[in-house]
Structure formats: C-alpha cells, structure tokens
Design goal:
Layout: H1 3-9, H2 22-52, E1 58-62, H3 65-79, E2 84-88, H4 89-92, E3 105-110, H5 116-127, E4 132-136, H6 142-145, E5 149-152, H7 168-188, H8 192-198, H9 202-209, E6 224-226, H10 231-241, E7 245-249, E8 255-260, H11 261-269, E9 285-287, H12 292-298, E10 308-312, E11 315-320
Parallel strand pairs: 1-2, 1-3, 3-4, 4-5, 6-7, 9-10
Antiparallel strand pairs: 7-8, 10-11
Helix pairs in contact: 2-7, 3-7, 10-11
Length: about 325
C-alpha cells in the first residue's frame, strides 16, 4: 500500500508518529516521488513537448514557497538554452504582466491551486492566449482545471511538517519540475556543445570547455617496469623514484598499462606481489579529444588512485588520475 493510498483510506492506517524523525520523512518523500513520477509520466511528456516547441518566452510563475521552485525551474530552463524567466504572481498583477504576450507559455506552481493572485493571473494568460501548464497539489483545483496540462504533486496535508508547513509537497514539486526540464532537454536534443555555451564558468564550465589532453600527465615521466615483472618489481621502481605511477611496457616499448602507487599498495595488501603484471586487467583509457566532463563520466567506476591512459588514436600519449580533473589539482 502506498502512502498516498493509505491517506485516502484514513490517516490511522499510516501509523505515523506525532513528531516523526527526519529519516522517516525522507522515506515518505521517496514513496511520494515514485507515485508522482508514475502518475505524471504522460502529462510530463506532453508538457515538455509543448515547452520545447514554444516559439516565445517561457514564464515560470509562483508565489511564496512555490515561487522559489518556479524561479529554480526558469533558471534551469535558461541553462539548457530555453528562453525563460521567473514571474512573481503578485508583481505581475501590478504591472509586470506587460512582459506577457501571445506566443508565450506559462508554467505555474501552486500547492493549493486556488491562490487568488494565481487565478487572477491565469485570467490574464487566457486573455492573451498564453497556454498554461501547472504543477499543482490538487487535481480538482481551479488552476488544474484551467491548465492545458496539470502535473499533480498529490501530497496530503497530513504528510507536511506538523501537518502545516509545506515541506514534503515542495520536494515533490521540485522533483516534478526538474523531471520536466529533463524531458524538455531530451525533446530539444540538448548536447554538450549547446550546454557549454550556456554554462562556460564554474567547475562545470571548466569541465566542459577543456579537453582531457590539457590536464593529462606525460607518460614519458613515468618509470618503466617490464611486462615480465611482478607487482613487487613495480612497487620497488615506484618507491625508488617516488613516482605516482609506473608504466608497464614490453621489450619493444609498447605501453601495456599503467599502475598507480595507491593501486600497487592495495594489490600488495591482497598478497598479489608475485603475480605477473601482464595478467592484470588493462588500464582504462580515453581519447585525447574528449572533454574533461566526458572523461569524468568514463572513470566514475574507477578506484581512487587508479590511473587512466589518454590515447591519440591507438597511441598512449598521457595519463591522469581522478584528482587531476579538478581545477585546483590539475597537473598543469
């Protein structure tokens, strides 16, 4: 039985303590998020298509707590290249509705769906033939009924903090909003180059605007261990020159892999000291032409201290550790 269903049948079946601890609230939110995702799947698909195909400006509308979610929604749409801005419902009724025109689209956030300022603004939208998408708590509310698409949060009052403070509902509304943005990004075919243009600064901008070849370390700087050697040999060579890693090469100078210092120490602790180096799994590798962001995604499953090889075609030209992918820790 879901929490939503239990509430419909009577709050006594919830067995919720009067002052429930935070972890239980998180579990409630998780259950409600799954329910909201399933119930709104079709509406999100339709609403995202409407936003993606809109020729004009997108207005994220709200007031109070819902206004903060609308502001986040509008800002995130801007990040993926959609013309959008936040419109405070109260301010709009005092002149800012002048920014609204035919061809625009409104996405309205409201828990109750019956706030007077919101409904007055809906009237303005209707007069100017501006379609309305709503993210609202009550499917039978005036706002939901007057919307082209209504995405329902469906959080009963009893599941809010002390059955009063909007908390659980704001989590669900924010999740639906970000799910809608995600669907819009798919509909417009957002790719890394387009996103890079909107987000050139900060850590993410650094990841997107630089190639892995700009932060890699040169393989030539590494001490060499033959493929015929053992893990003990690798540990000895690395310790002798205090290197971060060693290059495993055959008699022809072909690089077969790289072992990081921490990686060697972990393997030695597992009593693998006499295992031939050529029997270890190949070192993960990436192309020199990909961005740092793409490289980060490719090495997510790698252990700390495990290096990755950078290749130009088939030729190894460098290596890096996960720590090199941070602006303040880059090798150069």
């Amino acid at each position: 039985m879901t929490i939503v269903r239990a509430v419909e049948e009577g709050t006594e079946s919830l067995d919720v303590p009067k002052h429930e601890p935070d972890p239980f609230k998180m579990k409630q939110c998780a259950s409600l998020l799954v329910s909201a995702s399933e119930q709104n799947e079709s509406a999100i698909a339709d609403a995202s298509k409407l936003i993606a195909e809109a020729k004009g400006h997108i207005h994220g509308v709200g007031i109070g707590k819902s206004g903060y979610i609308a502001r986040l929604f509008s800002s995130t749409l801007q990040t993926i290249g959609i013309s959008a801005s936040f419109l405070h419902a109260s301010d709009a009724l005092h002149g800012e509705a002048g920014s609204v025109s035919n061809g625009n689209l409104a996405v309205i956030f409201s828990h109750s769906g019956s706030t007077s300022e919101i409904l007055a603004l809906v009237e303005v939208f209707e007069q100017r033939s501006v379609p309305v998408i709503s993210i609202v708590g009550d499917a039978s509310s005036p706002l939901a009924v007057r919307s082209q698409f209504a995405l329902i949060t469906g959080v009963p009052q009893v599941l809010e903090l002390r059955s009063m403070v909007p908390t659980t509902s704001t989590v669900v509304a924010t999740s639906i909003a970000m799910g809608l943005v995600s669907a819009v990004s798919e509909a417009v075919g957002l790719d890394e180059s387009a996103f890079r243009e909107s987000h050139p600064a900060g850590r993410l901008g650094w990841d997107l605007t630089r190639l892995i070849s700009e932060v890699m370390r040169p393989i030539e700087s590494l001490p060499v261990v033959p493929t015929s050697g053992t893990l003990d040999d690798a540990a000895t060579v690395v310790a002798r020159v205090n290197a971060s890693a060693c290059s495993i090469q055959d008699e022809h100078g072909n690089v077969h892999g790289i072992l990081g210092r921490e990686q060697i120490e972990r393997k030695l602790s597992l009593e693998k000291s006499l295992i031939d180096l050529e029997k270890f799994d190949p070192t993960p590798s990436v192309s020199a032409t990909i961005s740092i962001h793409q490289a980060r995604l490719k090495i997510e499953s790698m252990d700390d201290g495990e290096p990755a090889i950078v290749r130009d075609g088939n030729k190894p030209v460098g290596f890096f550790f996960a720590s090199d992918l941070h602006p303040s820790n880059s090798y150069h």
